[in-house]
Amino acid sequence: MARIKTDNNLTRKEVIVTKAATLFREKGFKAASMRDLAEAVGVEAASLYNHIKSKTELLHELCFSVANRFLHKIDEVELEKNSSVEKIEKLLRFHINEMIHHYEEVYVSDREWKHLSDPYLSNFQNQRRIYRKRFAAIIEIGIKNKEIKSIDAATAVLIMLHAISGIESWHRSIKKISAEELEENMISILVGGLVNR
Amino acid sequence: MARIKTDNNLTRKEVIVTKAATLFREKGFKAASMRDLAEAVGVEAASLYNHIKSKTELLHELCFSVANRFLHKIDEVELEKNSSVEKIEKLLRFHINEMIHHYEEVYVSDREWKHLSDPYLSNFQNQRRIYRKRFAAIIEIGIKNKEIKSIDAATAVLIMLHAISGIESWHRSIKKISAEELEENMISILVGGLVNR
DNA sequence: ATAACATACTAACGTGTGTTAGCGATAAAA
DNA sequence: TTTTATCGCTAACACACGTTAGTATGTTAT
Which residues of chain B does A152 touch, with a Cβ-Cβ cutoff of 8 Å? Predict the structure, then answer.
């Protein structure tokens, strides 16, 4: 009888969620079927329901675990006694590293949250809105300090976050530069685009 | 008997494709059903097939019409006798305006092309790969000229293109800055991040 | 060894999907 | 006006989907 392997002291549910992330990224949430997922896990579709409540629950878990990581980070960064530019750089580096090392989850959370259903959907959208506002607030302080050039902060946030989601293409490309190079290049372009000179 | 309205000298097929773009953006290709589309058009689902061959055909048309516009533009820009930075700025402004004024199509082409099926899929991927190479080549010339700081060109392209796709958030936001402001802000940040100083 | 539990299986359900066939209605051409 | 082509309708198809019920197998604790 087939059994879900649980190496690295992961629960069976965690194994399923992880495989789901990969599948949702590859095919999209709607196009990825529970039968696909079952096959990836090495089990029959119905068996998954011994561990999870529904397909959407998988999406909840992915979206909110990612969102929480970012919220915790911005909590941390806001408390530091750094310049705005330093804070922004720290946030950007965190985003970049999340996108490099937790690619599947972050990508899914970014692109597939539309398929959440209320109340999770509104909740998630709220968290995102708030996160962006806090990010924008940091930028606005930098603008007042003349650290940062006079631009629309919301637009700047939008550029930063979406630019980083482009790491998707880096993952898919054949001949990649190293992760470190990628990080430095991105920081150079993004921070370089903000600062006053 | 219901009939598809064809104002502005559009064919009935064009009306369907346009509505499909909106629907695919809102729900995603997979989640948008032909019955949804039929309702949006004001007709029964089966009637759509008097005008189109299949659901995927709608996606083909959207993806390739967008891709062709960008390819034509880069053809044009490459021939001009401008500096690299000027060429890049021209391309970026084109991207931004496409994203502002042909939002639905461009967004769908960007996010839903995965659901194309071969041979369209490989074809589309190829066109994208080539487009990015040509964009990167312009940047590389700029780097050699010292117009542009020494960065990985492929990474720069990836940042630029994805940053622009963030205009999606601008469309969805409630209190928007004007389209002109948006364009200038984006150019300022993106070009500012590239140039040597 | 036995009881209790966790996990996987088979079978099937209701629903929604893209699409086709065939027939009436309408508009365009003769 | 008659003919012809265009367009929309109803009905139905085969299929894939998420999920449930009930049962068998394997694992852990007593």
Answer: 177, 181-182, 185
